[in-house]
Specification:
Elements (H helix, E strand, L loop, with lengths): L1 H25 L2 H4 L4 H18 L4 H4 L2 H8 L5 H6 L4 H18 L2 H13 L3 H16 L4 H21 L27 H17 L8 H13 L8 H28 L7 H5 L3 H19 L4 H18 L20 H14 L28 H7 L2 H20 L1 H8 L1 H4 L3 H15 L5 H19 L3 H11 L11 H7 L6 H31 L17
Helix pairs in contact: 1-3, 3-19, 5-19, 7-12, 7-16, 7-17, 8-9, 8-15, 9-10, 9-11, 9-13, 10-11, 10-15, 10-25, 11-13, 11-25, 12-19, 12-23, 12-24, 13-26, 16-17, 19-23, 20-23, 22-23, 22-24, 22-26, 23-24, 24-26
Length: 554
């Protein structure tokens, strides 16, 4: 008995190390039975999927496995594997993230948010509506994680001030038989109002990331894999992404907000305890307004730094939009016949961010007033130290690993093999294939990284589209978007974890509200994307550029 306890304790402590060693051995028969390049690639995909799902290694470290196994197992040579880690989509991600960090560096995002909330109104319901709208719009342009992390402190300050004034509460009453000093903070239960504010912000960030190609790393995974699988295609264009996914983003966000109002704040249930809890009256609204005003006072007047960063942000958006707008020739055609990508536009703005000074005190270099003369050179609109501290370096390698997987799947013939094995699905009507693939992505993404799921599924979906003679975007875009429908668990995505922690929200509480969120999201996707996408990409015919593909190894 004692020995069993010791063994179980050891397994509980060292299970990750055991998994790292045993799992690759257990799945060896995958290619030992049939030693072809395709089956060796299947082995690598299954190995990485297991490591990603159970997170026995950091996600980015698992993403480096192709650098070792692809060349040594004869799947893809080292040069091609290495190049996959810095494709154009990855450089666009780096550029977009630095632009977003510049906004964070000067606190422009906080100023915009506070002004917008003050303008919308300060009742609980209007405040929640304003916060989720702002989070959604901000998350279109910066990472979902950063958008959530930006909004949570604002929410916390407002709720704490309301609680201190006695017109609201973040926590359910503590048990009367336990002294306040002995109450475990982690055991406190949040009120419905608190849960609504926190978790709706996380959901708004995930939904907002759908609207713009730079809003989520998962979107750029699609861009990289799509353009790798179909190099002769027009690619994933910035303006077409906006046209296709902003309507979908709005169609998911606001029905979801109504559902959360019903569940948490007693909408349509006027006599419920939840509805009564949010009725703070004019006094509560005034307190909230004062909190927002105080925070704006602390920010001070709009600085030249914020103005310049705002101009740079608009410049980036314009460069992306007018690179290939469709109705006129794009700006690259005025400069060169060489292909110019979205990463070029992003890096133009990144360079300008480092070149332009944050302070305009150089104007007083020759001032007669010595006090006004600058004592040192100003930093740029963003500094490399700040970028180095805040950059999601791991996501760059995670995306790169996915692109390497996609190249390996195509080069080894695994994609064709998978499509043949899934011939039952291939013979179904296109809309049914779309539904099955999207549901699969949505379910799997609840348990592991969105980008990891996209990296695994999208190359396979590309080959299913080839086999079924369906426009690749018809299947790949919905699967990519479904990878962002990760609402069920705190571990599903970083925004969920960031929002759940401050209010002690339990997994089962999140699952209850998320189950309807999932239904709303998938129904809107199925209802809107096929028809709207047909207008944008013309799904009526199988494109010629989708037929060509690389020769495969044996």
């Amino acid at each position: 008995m004692v020995t069993c306890k010791i063994i179980l304790r050891a397994l509980g402590v060292h299970w990750k190390s055991l998994f790292i060693i045993v799992y690759p051995l257990l799945i060896l028969p995958i290619f030992l039975v049939e030693n072809t390049a395709a089956m060796r690639c299947v082995y690598v995909v299954v190995l990485m999927a297991g490591y990603w799902v159970f997170e026995v290694l950091p996600l980015a470290v698992t993403a480096m496995i192709p650098l070792v196994l692809f060349p040594t197992m004869g799947i893809l040579d080292a040069k091609k594997t290495s190049l996959a880690y810095f494709k154009e989509a990855n450089m666009m991600f780096v550029g977009g993230l630095i632009i977003a960090l510049a906004i964070e560096f000067c606190s422009l995002h906080t100023r915009i948010s506070l002004h917008a909330i003050k303008w919308i109104g300060c009742s609980y319901r209007r405040l929640n509506f304003g916060l989720i709208t702002l989070t959604m719009l901000v998350s279109m342009w910066i990472s979902n994680t950063a958008a959530t992390a930006m909004m949570i402190p604002i929410i916390q300050a407002v709720l704490e001030e309301l609680e201190s004034q006695g017109v609201g509460s973040r926590w359910e009453p503590d048990p009367p038989d336990i002294p306040p000093e002995e109450v475990d903070p982690l055991s406190r239960r949040p009120t419905s109002v608190a849960m609504c504010f926190y978790i709706s912000t996380a959901y708004a960030a995930s939904i907002g990331g759908l609207g713009c190609i730079v809003g989520s790393g998962t979107n750029l995974v699609l861009k990289g894999i799509y353009e790798s699988e179909f190099p002769h295609s027009p690619g994933v264009e910035f303006n077409k992404w906006l046209a296709a996914n902003i309507p979908l983003m709005l169609a998911i966000m606001y029905p979801s907000w109504v559902w959360m109002q019903i569940w948490f704040m007693g909408l349509c249930r006027p006599n419920s305890a939840d509805a009564k809890a949010i009725n703070v009256g004019a006094e509560g609204e005034e307190i909230t307004r004062k909190v927002l005003i105080q925070k704006l006072v602390e920010l001070g007047p709009l600085s030249p730094h914020e103005i310049m960063v705002g101009i740079m942000f608009i410049t980036a958006a314009m460069l992306w939009f007018f690179r290939r707008p469709g109705f006129i020739s794009g700006w690259p055609s005025l400069l060169t016949e060489t292909q110019v990508g979205d990463s070029t536009a992003a890096m133009i703005v990144v360079l300008l961010l480092f070149m332009f000074p944050a302070k305009m005190d150089f104007r007083y270099m020759f001032s007669e007033d010595e006090e006004r003369r600058p004592k040192a050179a100003s930093s740029g609109l963003i500094t490399w130290r700040f970028v180095n501290q805040k950059m999601h370096w791991s996501l760059i390698f995670l995306m790169g690993g996915g692109f390497a997987l996609a190249d390996g799947i195509k080069n080894s013939g695994m994609g064709d093999l998978t499509a043949e094995k899934l011939s039952v699905i291939v013979d179904l009507p296109p809309v049914q294939i779309l539904i099955i693939c999207s549901l699969l992505a949505m379910v799997v993404t609840q348990f592991t990284s969105n980008a990891a799921v996209a990296n695994i599924l999208l190359p396979i979906i590309a080959n299913i589209a080839r086999k079924a003679k369906i426009h690749p975007m018809y299947l790949m875009m919905p699967v990519c978007l479904s990878c962002s429908f990760s609402y069920c668990l705190p571990v599903s995505t970083p925004p969920n974890a960031i929002a759940a922690a401050p209010c002690n929200m339990r997994s089962w509480e999140m699952i209850k509200v998320a189950s309807v969120m999932q239904v709303i999201a998938i129904l809107m996707l199925i209802a809107i994307f096929p028809s709207l996408g047909t207008v944008i990409w013309d799904f009526s015919e199988y494109p010629d550029w989708a037929v060509a593909k690389n020769k495969t190894k044996s």
